[in-house]
Amino acid sequence: MRKSVLLIMLLFAVGMTANAQKFALIDTEYIMKNIPAAQSANEQMQEATKKYQGEVEVLAKTAQKMFQDYQAKSSTLSATQKTKKEDEIVAKEKEAAELKRKYFGPEGELAKMRDKLLTPIQDDIYEAVKAISQQHGYDMVVDRASAAGIIFANPRIDISDEILRRLGYSN
User: Fold this and answer.
1) DSSP 3-state assignment of 88?
2) Which of 65, 97, 101, 103 is the most buried (most CB within 10 A)?
């Protein structure tokens, strides 16, 4: 009985070894840095971010100035005037918050720009990874840029340069 159990375990271990999985590693940050269109898209997004942030800051500063003026003059204002000023300040703060959401929210202008500019590039990278994985028989491809748990990986399993070549960007 013992010999049968040991034989089955040995066969199972040999079978697992024979079906060893192949892994590969990519670094999407490295790949994106070597694609000119991705660099251009990142620059456009940075410019838009600065522009949008500037607009939001102008409204926020206006609301802050209105509040400071209100505090300075509140002792001389009637209750009705105070309420009116407070409502104006709250409206300006809401306007700033709405503008911030419009630009930086999950469905804001920046997210739409990212989808328009970067999604096609990311899709191309995915298709290249998929093709190379099928060609070389990789069972799994891990992204070093998003896998914080990777402490060390042998550089020989990094296929980032192969992905770039497949996309037409030799390194």
Assistant:
1) helix
2) 103
In what helix (H) or strand (E) does residue 139 lie, and over which residues does it extend?
Answer: none
Q: Please give the pLDDT value at position 157.
A: 87
DSSP string, 18-31: HTPPPEEEE-HHHH
Strands (E), the chain: 23-26, 140-143
Do residues 128 and 166 make contact, with C-beta atoms less than 8 angstroms apart?
A: yes
The one-character DSSP state at 118 is: T
Q: Residue 63, Cα to own-chain centre: how many angstroms?
A: 31
Nearest-CA neighbor of 133 among 16, 35, 20, 25? 25
Rounded CA gap, 147 and 16, in Å? 26
Question: Is 117 among the domain residues?
Answer: yes
Q: How many domains are there within the chain?
A: 1
The one-letter amino acid at 59: L
Instruction: Tell me, yes or no, whether 160 lies in a domain.
Output: yes
Residues of the chain with pLDDT under 50: 5-7, 18
- The C-alpha angle with vertex 148 and arms to 137 and 38, in degrees rounded to 5, equals 75
CB–CB of 55/97 below 8 Å?
no
Q: What is the pLDDT of residue 7?
A: 47
